[in-house]
Every structure is written in C-alpha cells, then in structure tokens.
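lol forgot to send this yesterday, sorry. struct tokens for the thing we talked abt
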C-alpha cells in the first residue's frame, strides 16, 4: 500500500518511527530472501550438471561410490603413468609398493651400466589427504641377471638390470604410499628424483576371471587391422585386459580403442604405458618389460601373458585360456609358468581356398610350421616374490601361433584349420564390425559409432 508524503507528514512521530522500522525490516528480509534464492539456484545448477546425489537418469553423472570405482578401474594397471626417468647414469621406469613377509618396501626397476650405487639415499612420500608427508627410507639394490635368448654370443654384458629398494624406517602408518624420492649425493649437490609409486589392491575376488595380456612395443609398424584383429580374437578366448607398452607408433588407433573400453561388448580395459627403452639391448628390454608386467598384474588377474601384436595364444581343446590352463595346472591358486610350442603361420603364402578376403588374417593363413622361438611368459596366478613352477603344455592342448612372413626361412608347412573355430566370435565382435564398417577411425568417430 502506497502512503503519500502528506499523510506521513501528518502522522505522529511514533507512527513515523514505526513505519520506518517496518520499511527497514521489509528491505532486510527482501535482501536475505534474494541471497538465499541465489544460493539455491547455484546449488540446483551444480546438481543439474553433476547429477543428483540420490541417483537419477542414466544420462546424469553421479559422483557416488559406484561411479568412482568405475573411474578407478579405467586405469587399473596404468596409473600413475610411468616413463623412463634418468637417475644419474641410470634410468628408472617404475616403482611398486610391495610386501615381502612382514616387511613393506618400494621396489623400482632400473637399467644402466655396472654400479655400486654409493652415495644414494631414499625417502617415501605418503598421501595423507590434503598434504604429503615424507619418511626416511633404507636404500638397497639387487642385480637382476639377463638371460640371453636372442643370440648365442657370449659378449660381456654392459647393461644391467637393477631392483632398487627403499624400506621405510618408520613402520607406523602414514597414509597411502605416493612417491619415491631417490637422492644422489655428489661433492657439491644433492640431486633429487621423484618416481610415482604403483600400489596394487590385491583381492582374490577382484581377479577372479581376469586374464591380462601385456603387449610388447611395436617396432615394425603393425597394421591397424592386425591390432583390431588381435584384440578381437583374444577377447573371444577370455582376455579381459590389455596393457600395451607403446612407443608412440600406434598412438592414434590405441587412443580410439581406449575410448571404447568398459562399454558393453568391448574389453574391460585397454591401457597404454609410454615405453621408449633407453638402450638397444633387446634382452634387457624384454626382461624389464616382463618384470614390470608381472608387478602390475600381481594379485590382480588369474592369468597374464606377454605377447606381440602378431602372436596368438590359442586353446585347442577348450574355448578359453582360463579353462585350458586351469585343467593343465596341477594345483589351484599357485603360480605356474606355462611353456607352449610356437608355430609360424606364413602370411606371404596363399590364403586358404575356403577363406573369404574379408576374414581376419588368422582365419585365412592356415599353413604353419613349428619354430624355435624366444621364451614365452604365460603365468597363472602371478604373484611378485614367488617363483612359479614350470609346466610344458603339449601342442595338442594349446600353442602360440605367430603370423609373419616366411621369406628367407626354409618352409616345410602343414595345414591346420584350428583357428576356424573362432571365426564366428571374431567376425561378430563389435570391435571387428566397427573396423570393417570404416567408422572406427573417422575424424568424428564418436558421432558415427553405433555400439548398441
């Protein structure tokens, strides 16, 4: 209700005072209401963006425990990212938080020239929520022998593999291990190097049914189709996770494949680790890669294998790798390393007469022969610190098929159609169909992918 100035003037003074108080209170209430309204609108905007804490539609992003667990599983084997870090005259790739009996320590993998590692000390950093704390560690190292598999020469080994250990001097819990700091003391300086710590959450339930393949870095320029076929096939025989040691050669196709993981019908994970080995020693490179692969999968998977893009792990009596190895294993849940016979399938020979051109290479190249090849690493129930027992599988149970040209090799081949049993699984896989449709590597592939 509006009040004229003349009316106000005629009011008594106490009436004027009462009107003034009512006006001030009304304005204050209005300002408070406006402030609360703006706060409420901000909260509603945030909820509209991130999703309601109580759940909602499938298109809402809900930051609850289920979502966070799903996000963590996307990088189960690759976070924190590793790279070759120079530490004085050596290079360190990765560090792991491990248990040996009642002792906890960090173990880092390093390569370099012979050294006694004098004048070194270490610290372990812990994540305590909002800040990091540092604990002094006891430094030590061990030398890892490098077996020669690729040649018969006995030249002196100039590149050594080292395991660097840092054991905390304080045993009281300081939070989650976060990073290793190596300190090299010289006459004038203290050079500090930080290496992120990989900590495996070991759980028998989490690794049930998990089969991982670590893929060696590609140096020959494998075709994109061979990468797609490799993943499609091994997914069909039960591989759930792929850990790719990548030197940058296949970054485009791998980034697309990583974006599809976790979706229905695709692999649970495809993760890449940047791998540019600092030396040209193939024996040392192979050994360090296998050590790193075992450390990442220890206690997390039932089976792990190390392969190249053209190597296929083939069960012959079963339809999955897990069934094949568990039937052959003498006991359950004990680390066993399997040796399988290797066969080369000559990709430069003619296709099988019954095969179609659209079929994967593994189904078209059926002429193979047994070869002596480098060692294989196939371990059931991998655990760091426990040497697995050895077991050789007969070629009738399983084999490694290697798809490479036979140029320069004396070929005495035989026909083996074993891969035909996996033809249906491969050509009907979503990944293979996407590749054949031509939409997998388009510039805007997210708009063209039909994954329903």
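and heres what i got for the seq, position by position
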């Amino acid at each position: 209700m509006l009040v004229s100035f003349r009316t106000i003037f005629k009011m008594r003074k106490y009436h004027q005072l009462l009107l003034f108080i009512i006006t001030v209170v009304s304005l204050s209430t209005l300002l408070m209401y406006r402030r609360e309204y703006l706060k409420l609108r901000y909260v509603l905007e945030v909820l509209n963006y991130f999703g309601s804490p109580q759940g909602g539609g499938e298109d809402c992003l809900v930051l609850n425990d289920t979502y966070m667990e799903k996000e963590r599983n996307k990088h189960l084997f690759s976070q924190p990212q590793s790279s070759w870090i120079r530490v004085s005259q050596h290079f360190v790739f990765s560090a792991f938080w491990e248990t040996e009996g009642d002792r906890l320590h960090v173990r880092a993998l390093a390569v370099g020239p012979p050294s006694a590692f004098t004048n070194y000390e270490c610290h372990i950093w812990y994540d305590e929520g909002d800040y990091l704390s540092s604990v002094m560690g006891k430094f030590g190292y061990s030398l890892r022998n490098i077996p020669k598999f690729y040649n018969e020469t006995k030249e002196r080994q100039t590149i050594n593999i080292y395991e660097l250990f840092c054991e905390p001097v304080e045993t009281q819990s300081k939070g989650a291990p976060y990073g290793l700091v190596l300190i090299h003391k010289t006459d004038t300086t203290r050079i500090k190097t930080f290496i992120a710590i990989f900590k495996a959450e070991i759980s028998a339930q989490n690794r049930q049914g998990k089969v991982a393949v670590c893929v060696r870095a590609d140096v020959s320029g494998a075709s994109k189709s061979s990468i797609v076929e490799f993943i499609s096939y091994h997914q069909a025989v039960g591989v759930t996770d792929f850990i790719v040691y990548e030197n940058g050669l296949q970054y485009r196709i791998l980034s697309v494949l990583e974006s599809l993981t976790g979706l229905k019908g695709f692999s649970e994970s495809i993760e890449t680790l940047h791998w540019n080995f600092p030396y040209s020693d193939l024996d040392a490179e192979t050994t360090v890669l296998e050590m790193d692969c075992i450390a990442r999968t220890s206690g997390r998977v039932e089976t792990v294998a190390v392969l190249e893009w053209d190597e296929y792990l083939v069960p012959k009596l079963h339809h999955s790798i897990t069934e094949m190895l568990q039937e052959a294993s003498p006991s359950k849940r004990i680390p066993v390393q399997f040796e399988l016979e290797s066969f080369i399938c000559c990709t430069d020979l003619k296709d099988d007469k019954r095969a179609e051109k659209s079929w994967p290479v593994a189904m078209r190249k059926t002429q193979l022969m047994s070869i002596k090849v480098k060692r294989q690493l196939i371990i059931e129930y991998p655990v760091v610190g426990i040497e697995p027992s050895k077991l050789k599988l007969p070629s009738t149970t399983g084999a490694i098929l290697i798809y490479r040209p036979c140029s320069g090799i004396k070929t005495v081949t035989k026909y083996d159609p074993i891969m035909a049993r996996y033809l249906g699984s491969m050509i009907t896989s979503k990944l293979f169909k996407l590749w054949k449709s031509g939409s997998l590597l388009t510039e805007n592939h997210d708009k063209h992918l039909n994954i329903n």
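The mean pLDDT is 84. anyway ping me if u want another try
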